[in-house]
Each structure stands twice: as C-alpha cells, then as structure tokens.
Design brief:
Strand content: under 5%
Oligomer: single chain
Radius of gyration: 22 Å
Distance between the termini: 36 Å
Number of helices: 21
Strand order of the largest sheet: 1-4
C-alpha cells in the first residue's frame, strides 16, 4: 500500500503542477500565473521552477529524510513542481508528468530504503547516531510561540510567553502523571507547554484590531482566480487525501519538527507540532491562492495533522484528508473577510513561520553537534572533533557563494562526518569498537 500511495502522490502532484493548478514551492506559486498570462515562456517557467526548488531538494529535503528514514514532503513535492513544469503543456506532457512523477515517488521511497540498507553495510553504521540530530527538536519546539510573540509584539510579551511555557513544562513534568480509576494518565510536557504558549500567542494577536477590507476586496478583484481553484476541487481533494494517507502510513511528513517526532513514535506531539505549523501557513497559502489562482498540493498543511492524528488508519485518513481540503477551499472567502477584523492573526502567520525556522535551525544544530560527538566518541574516543567539524561546516557554509539552507546544514554536516569516519576506518587510521 505504501508504494501505491507514494506513486499516486508523485503522479498527481506532477499533473497539478503541469496544469498550473497547484505547486508546493511558495515562492514559485507567484511565478506560475505569469506563464498563463503569456508574460514568460514555458522554458522560462521550467527554468525558474528548477532554480527555486532544486537546491532545497538536495540541501534540505534529502538529508533531512535520510536522517529520519522518513520522507520529508519537500523532497517529493518540490521535485514534482519541477517535473510538472518541465513537461510540455499538452496532453502528452500531462501524461508524461504523471508517469515521471509517479516513478520519482517510487524512486524516492525505494531509494530511501536502499540508503538505509547501504548504511547497514558500512564498517561503521552511523545511522542510529544520525538520529540524534533531531534529539532536541521536541523540547525546543515548545518555545516557538514565545519567539513568535517577540517578533510580532515586543520582548516583554515574548518573555511572559516564554515564562508561561517553561512553567507549564515544569508543572506537567512534575505533576503530569496521575491515576484515574484503574487508568494511569501521563500528560506530555513538551506538547502541553507548547499548547500553553500557543494560546497566549493567539490572545496577543487577537488584540490587534482592524477596520479595513483589503482582503475582502481581494476576493472580488480575483474572483476569476478563485473560481479556477475551486473548479479543480476534486483533484485537490484527492491530493489532500493521498497526503493524509501517506502521513498515516508514516512514509511522509510535512516538516522537520513533526518528522522528527513521527520518527520517535510521538504521534500526538507530531500532530500538535504540525497543527501549529499549519496555522502559520493559512495566511500565506490563502493569500497567494487569492492573488495567483494557484493552490498548494498540501493546502495549508492541515492534511498532515489529519494523517498524524489517524496514524495507522490510512483509509480513514484518506477520506478525512480529502474532506479537510474541500473545507479549506470553501473557507478562502471567509478567511479573507475574517482577517480584516483580526489583522494581528494574519500577521501572526508570518511570525510563526519565522520563529519555527529559527527554533528548528538552533535545535538541529545542537542536535547535529551531539550526533557528531557520539560518532567521534565511538571512533576511538575522538571527543571534540565532531563538534569542531559541524561548527566549522556551519560557519564556512555561511561564506559560500551558494550556501546550503541553514536548517539543513546540521544533517548535511553529520552525514559528511559519518562518511569521513568510514573512510578513516577503511584506511586504518581509526577503529570503531562500538560498531563491531
């Protein structure tokens, strides 16, 4: 079933990109209408899709997927953007995009499994140590609401939110396990503290009022573009259902935070993290949809929340994911008018994405240092060299003409360090007793 689902996701996502119905890359979404308005050629469109997406696939999607042994959706849907736009805008091109996209989806799944098997054949299999890259994501992610409040409001409110978050974490950690009758209930400190911070973040954002009607006006000006999206509601619903189904089967995840939690088996925490991230994407996805007439294959990413909440129930997730996508399409107008009344909530979306990225960058870097140090300790007690390698790669990358995305530099550095250790092991410069 996993192979069927991943093939269908790859094929349909490529078809949606080929027809300009939906693309995953947020930056590329604004470019697509230029082709249909005859401002750029198909070749230029294809070149732009490659330029804005390929680096993220290589530098972010693939390393993150290898580290967790679960496919990060960027690895799949950024490439289907490229496949769809590189295939001609004809019936043959439509078929080609579906076939190539399906083959690519299968290749990613099989390839990831092959890489995992390849790691097992190495003299020193550092895949288990590589998992430490995401060791601090769970706890660090709880602080993102406080960071978002700092960005949107001021330092004082951010500190208040952080204090509430830390207090909630302490109280749940200390008193969060109790007995109800014959059942033992254990609350999750990370998830509950993040929820406390998120509630406070929403309270602060809702206090910013507005009287304008800029977004509502957008729905009138671009009503034709909205109609274009809704005309393809069946395809988008199927796409949403497939993504939710794939997430339920634990073969894909929507972001590094929920991916790391999913890899650890923390399904409820992963769903909560994905939900918080989805809130941040509502303004971006809806606004770009209103303006461009192009939607996102994963919508506002609530389909990942559905898949995680229905873990192990792929058929139910398929139906629920399709329903969520349909609801999203129906709510675009309502969203636009609602944002006029609460502009702070709309603005909050951008700050949520920024804060999440900052938290993940920090957590993955700290985790990468820890993972590299575990590898170094196993390699004959070379303590310190792992941290030196990761920090060195990070700083040198910042000076590169074409730097790797900072969020991915931790996993990339750890993979490179693990390969280096294996080369040193093969030529006899080090020994790895722990791996033997």
């Amino acid at each position: 079933m996993k192979y069927i689902v991943i093939v269908c996701i790859g094929a349909l996502a490529s078809v949606l990109a080929n027809r300009g119905i939906a693309v995953f890359n947020d930056g590329f979404r604004a470019i697509v209408p230029q082709y249909y308005d005859k401002k750029i050629s198909r070749k230029e469109l294809a070149a732009m899709s490659f330029a804005v997406s390929f680096g993220l696939v290589i530098g972010f999607g693939i390393p993150t997927s290898i580290a967790a042994t679960i496919i990060l959706i960027h690895c799949l849907l950024l490439t289907t953007d490229i496949i769809g736009t590189w295939c001609p805008d004809t019936k043959l091109g439509l078929i080609l995009s579906g076939v190539i996209g399906g083959a690519y989806g299968l290749g990613v799944l099989v390839g990831l499994e092959a890489i995992v098997n390849l790691f097992a054949m190495l003299p020193y299999n550092f895949l288990s140590d590589l998992g430490s890259v995401s060791a601090y994501v769970t706890v660090a992610f709880a602080i993102f609401p406080a960071v978002a409040v700092c960005y949107q409001h001021d330092f004082r409110k951010g500190v208040i939110t952080a204090a509430v978050t830390v207090l909630a974490f302490f109280l749940i950690k200390k008193f969060g396990t109790f007995t109800l009758g014959s059942y033992t209930v254990a609350l999750n400190a990370e998830g509950m503290s993040m929820l406390a911070g998120t509630v406070l973040m929403l309270v602060f954002a809702a206090q910013v009022k507005g009287e304008g009607n800029a977004n509502a006006a957008l729905t009138e000006v671009f009503s034709e573009k909205l109609a274009r999206i809704r005309k393809n509601w069946i395809l988008l619903a199927v796409m949403g259902g497939l993504i939710a189904c794939g997430t339920s089967l634990a073969i894909i995840a929507g972001d590094p935070a929920s991916l790391a939690l999913l890899a650890e088996g923390s399904y409820s925490d992963a769903a909560l993290a994905a939900f918080a991230r989805a809130i941040g994407f509502v303004p971006l996805v809806f606004t770009t949809a209103i303006v461009t007439g192009v939607y996102a294959p994963a919508g506002c990413t609530f389909v990942f929340v559905v898949g995680l909440a229905l873990h192990g129930n792929p058929v139910v997730a398929l139906l629920a994911g399709a329903a969520v996508m349909i609801v999203e399409l129906l709510l675009i107008n309502v969203f636009a008018k609602g944002m006029d009344k609460f502009p702070g909530v709309k603005e909050m979306g951008e700050h949520i994405r920024t804060s999440m990225n900052k938290v993940l960058e920090a957590a993955l870097l700290v985790g990468a240092v820890a993972a590299a140090e575990k590898m170094a300790s196993a390699a004959g007690g070379l303590s310190g060299i792992g941290a030196l390698f990761v920090i060195g790669v990070l700083l040198l990358n910042r000076q590169s003409k074409k730097p790797v995305v900072e969020m991915a530099i931790g996993p990339v550095a750890c993979i490179a360090f693990g390969i280096l250790l294996n080369l040193l092991l093969l030529i006899g410069l080090i020994s790895v007793p722990a791996a033997a």
